[in-house]
Amino acid sequence: MLVKELLKKCVYWIFRTFCPIDNYKILFESYYGAQYGCNPKYLSEYIVKNASQLKVTWAFVGNYPTVGNVKTVKYNSLRYFYELATAHFFVTNYRTVASFKKRRGQLYFQTWHSSLRLKMIEKDAEKSLNPEYIEMAKADSKRIDYLISGCKASTAIFKQAFWYDGTILEVGTPRIDFLLQPLDKAKIVQVRGALGIPIGAKIVMYAPTFRKNYSMECYEIDFERLLKSLEAKYENTNWVVVVRLHPHLRNYSSQLTDSNPFLIDATTYPDIQELLFVSDVLITDYSSLMFDYLFMKRPCFIFARDLDSYTQNDRGLYFKISELPFSVSTDDEELCRQVAAFDREKAIARYEAFIENVGSFEDGRASERITNIILNSL
Question: What dihedral angle (degrees, nearest 10) is formed by the CA atoms of 171, 27, 291, 154?
Answer without folding.
Answer: -50
